[in-house]
Design brief:
Elements lengths: L4 H15 L6 H8 L9 H9 L4 H10 L6 E5 L4 H12 L5 E4 L10 H6 L7 E4 L2 E3 L2 H11 L10 H18 L5 H11 L1 H23 L14 H17 L7 H11 L2 H5 L11
Parallel strand pairs: 1-2
Antiparallel strand pairs: 1-3, 3-4
Helix pairs in contact: 1-3, 5-7, 5-11, 8-10, 8-11, 9-10, 11-12
């Protein structure tokens, strides 16, 4: 990439906006000047820093401020697939967090303390300083906006939209229809057999749509060679579907390949339900 003086000035202004926290999203900078500015230290970036007239201590503070992690707390239940996807995302981004167990089987989600965090009485809930977020989809978008390391959304708009669409299918059209409270309600009204049939029907319907959606874009992972948000939502969903509802993934070869790639990742293995502090084994 050949950089002439006018382009260097443009890069300098954009970079300074970025590190000062101005309204220049990271992905716009990537689109203009390439992802290598975020992964390698080059003479160009050094020149930008020198041109900014900032002393080294001030620059270090600016750079640290954008990645400094306040104490993140995750309210989670080991069997919750929604909590699982957040654990997976936190691990991918390299963010440490305090795990606080909420036992849904014992009704701990209905305590007055938890009610203040989420009146819907669901997990996960993420607390980051003064910020409280009680929806896994919103949590991942928040983490993506605040913590730029290891992006979970690609730069290219079409691939970003594809990741968001796949994540939405899992979080809106699949998981809510087989969550614990819904299945308990179904069992009380129509019996355990109908409960299982209900869950399997909606899971298979969602997987069928995802198989068609991702067949053209999938590589090792859902949208290519890198793990993104679609994978974060898919992998726990597939694990739950096969173990809890006996879904045959041979019917969905693209999804099965994606899952096999995800489950080999150390970040995914660390997020497994059986490895959580509250796992009832």
């Amino acid at each position: 990439m050949k950089i002439n003086p006018p382009m260097l000035l443009k890069i300098s202004k954009s970079y300074l906006k970025l590190i000062k926290g101005d309204n220049l999203p990271r992905y716009h900078f990537q689109r203009l000047f390439g992802t290598h500015f975020f992964h390698t230290e080059t003479p160009t970036t050094n020149s930008i820093i020198d041109a900014s007239s900032m002393d080294s201590n001030n620059f270090q503070k600016k750079a640290t401020d954008s990645t400094l992690v306040s104490k993140i707390i995750l309210y989670s239940f080991w069997k919750s697939s929604c909590s699982w996807r957040v654990r997976f995302a936190l691990n991918l981004k390299g963010l440490s967090y305090e795990y606080r167990a909420v036992n849904l089987d014992k009704g701990e989600q209905f305590t007055s303390e938890f009610d203040k965090l989420n009146p819907l009485h669901y997990v996960p809930v993420l607390v980051d300083g003064d910020v409280v977020i009680s929806d896994s989809y919103a949590i991942l978008l928040y983490l993506e906006e605040k913590y730029h390391q290891r992006p979970l959304l690609p730069v290219e708009p079409q691939l970003r939209a594809l990741n968001l669409q796949a994540a939405s299918i899992v979080s809106s059209n699949m998981q809510p229809l087989h969550m614990l409270s819904v299945l308990r309600y179904m069992e009380e009204r129509v019996g355990p057999e109908e409960k299982q049939l209900w869950a399997k029907f909606h899971i298979q319907k969602g997987f069928g749509a995802l198989e068609k959606l991702l067949t053209g874009s999938a590589g090792k992972y859902a949208t290519g060679k890198e793990v993104y948000m679609a994978d974060v939502f898919l992998a726990p969903q597939i694990a739950v579907a096969t173990k809890r509802f006996n879904i045959n993934m041979s019917e969905f070869p693209t999804l099965r390949k994606i899952y096999d790639s995800c489950k080999a990742l150390p970040e995914f293995q660390a997020s497994l339900p059986e490895r959580q502090p509250d796992a009832a084994l």
